[in-house]
């Protein structure tokens, strides 16, 4: 049994960061755990709103827990972008070991109030909480707003285990040239010493920057979606077109596992 909480795997003082890997289905969830075992590193399996709209949350919870219980390295079962305390409560009941409550679109006082509610119920269940302050925008979508250090200090007082911040990182980037505001990051670190910091939009951050962030700052979780979804898409396209006579789902989809495992292992080992 190697199911772990977020606070058990995140260490802002260590020179390494942990990957929060976006899961959309069984094949990549399996590939990610195999990659973590090969790299001998913990990972965070996470399902966000898109995943939950497609596959019911109890199915994802059972999938994450089944994989974690058989794994040889710590695996966190994490709810990504929980849009309400109710969704977080449901995830906690289903056995997720970590929840993100995303109140970043709310006024500060309301975000803090709701986050406090989530922290209170999560702590009773031994579950970790990630919150978000500022707004991490989307490539060709909603704009970003930077995280304010003073607001970060107020949010840290809620007892959260990790804080997602906006310092130039952007969701859904298909290039690797996000411009990180190091000065803003240092100001946030000074306001919340020792608090694990999270960067969503990790795919858009150059590998060298991710490594430097992991080694020299409190950033100790990178969310990665786009990079590995591109690997999955290419592998699936190849598996489908390689033999037009094939129709069996397992024969086709199982060929996506190895390429995703190799890409995920390279990524995990890189930071
Ligand atoms: Zn995100």
CATH homologous group name: Aldolase class I
Instruction: Give the helices and strands as they follow along the chain.
Output: EHEHEHHEHEHEHEHEHEHHH
CATH topology: TIM Barrel
Helix content: 40-55%
The proportion of residues in beta strands is 15-25%
Q: Give the CA-CA distance, first to last residue.
A: 25 Å
Domain module count = 1
CATH architecture: Alpha-Beta Barrel
Detail the topology: elements first, then pairings.
Blueprint: E1 3-4, H1 6-9, E2 18-22, H2 26-39, E3 43-47, H3 49-54, H4 57-70, E4 75-82, H5 85-94, E5 98-101, H6 108-125, E6 128-132, H7 149-156, E7 162-164, H8 182-191, E8 197-199, H9 207-216, E9 219-224, H10 226-242, H11 249-253, H12 257-270
Parallel strand pairs: 1-4, 2-3, 2-9, 3-4, 4-5, 5-6, 6-7, 7-8, 8-9
Helix pairs in contact: 2-4, 2-12, 5-6, 7-8, 10-12
The chain binds zinc ion.
Task: Describe the protein's architecture and organization.
The protein has 271 residues and is an alpha/beta fold. It has a single domain (3-270), classed as TIM Barrel (Alpha-Beta Barrel). It has helices at 6-9, 26-39, 49-54, 57-70, 85-94, 108-125, 149-156, 182-191, 207-216, 226-242, 249-253, 257-270, and strands spanning 3-4, 18-22, 43-47, 75-82, 98-101, 128-132, 162-164, 197-199, 219-224. The protein has an eight-stranded parallel β-barrel with strand order 2-3-4-5-6-7-8-9, surrounded by seven helices. Helix 2 (26-39) runs parallel beside helix 4 (57-70), helix 2 (26-39) packs across helix 12 and helix 5 (85-94) packs parallel to helix 6 (108-125). It is globular, with a radius of gyration of 18 Å. The model has no long low-confidence stretch (mean pLDDT 97). Zinc ion (ZN) binds next to loops.
């Amino acid at each position: 049994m190697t199911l772990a909480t977020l606070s058990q795997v995140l260490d802002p003082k260590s020179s390494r960061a942990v990957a929060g890997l976006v899961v959309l289905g069984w094949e990549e969830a399996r590939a990610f755990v195999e990659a973590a075992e090969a790299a001998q590193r913990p990972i965070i399996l996470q399902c966000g709103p898109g995943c939950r709209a497609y596959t019911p949350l109890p199915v994802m919870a059972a999938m994450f827990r089944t994989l974690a219980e058989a794994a040889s390295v710590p695996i966190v079962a994490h709810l990504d972008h929980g849009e309400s305390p109710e969704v977080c409560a449901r995830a906690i009941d289903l056995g997720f070991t970590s929840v993100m409550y995303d109140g970043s679109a709310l006024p500060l006082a309301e975000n803090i109030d709701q986050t406090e509610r989530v922290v209170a119920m999560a702590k009773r269940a031994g579950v970790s909480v990630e919150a978000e302050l500022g707004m991490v925008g989307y490539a060709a979508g909603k704009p970003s707003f930077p995280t304010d250090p003073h607001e970060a200090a107020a949010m840290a007082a809620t007892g959260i285990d990790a804080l997602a911040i906006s310092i130039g990182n952007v969701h859904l980037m298909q290039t690797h040239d996000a411009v990180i505001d190091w000065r803003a990051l240092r100001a946030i670190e000074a306001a919340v010493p020792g608090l694990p910091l999270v960067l969503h939009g990790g795919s858009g951050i150059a590998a060298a920057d991710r490594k430097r962030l992991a080694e020299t700052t409190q950033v100790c979780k990178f969310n990665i979606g786009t990079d590995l979804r591109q690997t999955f898409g290419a592998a699936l396209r190849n598996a489908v077109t390689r033999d037009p006579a094939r129709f069996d789902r397992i024969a086709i989809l199982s060929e996506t596992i190895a390429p995703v495992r190799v890409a995920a292992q390279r990524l995990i080992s890189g930071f």
